[in-house]
Amino acid sequence: MRILVTGGAGFLGSHLVDALVERGDEVVVLDDLSRGEKSQINSGARFVQGDVRLFSDWEKACEGFDPEVIHHLAAINGTRRFHKEADLVVDVNVNGTRMSLKAAKEYGSTLIFYSSPEAFGEQENMPLRNDSTSIFTPAHLHQRHSYGASKHIGELLCQFESRKGLDVRIVRPCNVYGPRLRGDDNGQVVSMMMESNPIVVHGDGLQTRSLTWIHDVTEGLLKVNDASNLSGKAFNLGTNDEISMLDLATKIANLRGVEIIHGESNHGDSKRRLPDLSMNKEIDWVAKTGLDDGLSQLL
Predict the structure, then answer these.
(1) Residue 61 is part of which domain span?
(2) Over 90: is that where the pLDDT of 80 sits?
(3) CA–CA separation, 54 and 56 (whole Å)
(4) Quick one: pLDDT at residue 44?
């Protein structure tokens, strides 16, 4: 199968590319390397450096290669950037998604759009379902929701094109962790806790998340890629095992032998985020790796 992966040099994208190449798919990666690493791209894939906001770069990636499936992962990520670089977040995430839809129509491709639980904003009613309302706080308070709102808009655009006949599927990977996950200031929580000393817990640390091992998620992505009759459907690829950030920090601190301190709360940080997993029956997928097992493998 011919598959184009945007953001294929990043954490989740590079693991997906590995899985696709390993099973024999022909893969092209489109990435600007602003966050990903060229060294993470599987040597069996063809790499095109480019900006997903520019359709000319999509044309370069697709030259002589009409993709059957497009996985659109490329986006501005990193919690601290959502508030500090809201204009760039919205620009890349919304306009990159617009171009992905244009490419899917141009080349007759199935599009898999990578959304996020952040698309639900600060919704407090759990679990997060496909019919849950997205709740965003007033814009003058902070711009944290530039990311979640951009993903919400991306889902709107995808559903619009799906109603017009384009095969578009939506996945929401839920707090995925594993090797290659960045642990710097713009990284995600597990790797930040794995690399910092002392470990910094934001606020009281009572906010909860459900963490999902990378290889479990990759297996789910392949199922969404391969299944038929999924257009317009969205899948929360995650687990129902909740853990508070304080408990997570304690677990990792004990494994590493470091201390914990408390820092300022992040803007608009959700108190809970628990995904509804009922749709995953359609793709016969469930996360299998427990947190303790995943953390041990990561260490």
Answers:
(1) 2-181+211-240+274-290
(2) no
(3) 5
(4) 98
Give every CB contact of residue 54 below 8 A, 6+ residues apart in sequence. Answer: 99
Domain with residue 226: its CATH number is 3.40.50.720
pTM of the model: 0.96
Structure token digits, residue 262: 């408390």
Asked if residue 286 belongs to a domain, the reply is yes
pLDDT tens, residue by residue, 176-200: 999 999 877 767 889 999 999 999 9
Q: Which residue in the block uniquely carries the two structure tokens 């696709």? A: 20
**E-strand spans in the chain?**
2-6, 26-31, 46-49, 69-72, 110-114, 168-173, 176-177, 199-202, 208-210, 212-213, 234-237, 242-244, 260-263
CA dist 278 and 262 (Å) reads 36
Confidence of residue 103 (pLDDT cuts 50, 70, 90): very high
Q: Please, how many CA atoms are within 13 Å of residue 64, restricted to the half-sphere of its CB?
A: 1
Q: What is the mean pLDDT of residues 121-145?
A: 94
How many Cβ atoms are within 10 Å of 9's Cβ, its own excluded? 28
- Which residue is listed with tokens 């199968």? 1
The CA angle 101-122-161, to the nearest 5 degrees, is: 15
- Can you tell me the distance from the alpha carbon of 188 to that of 17, in angstroms, rounded to the nearest whole number? 21
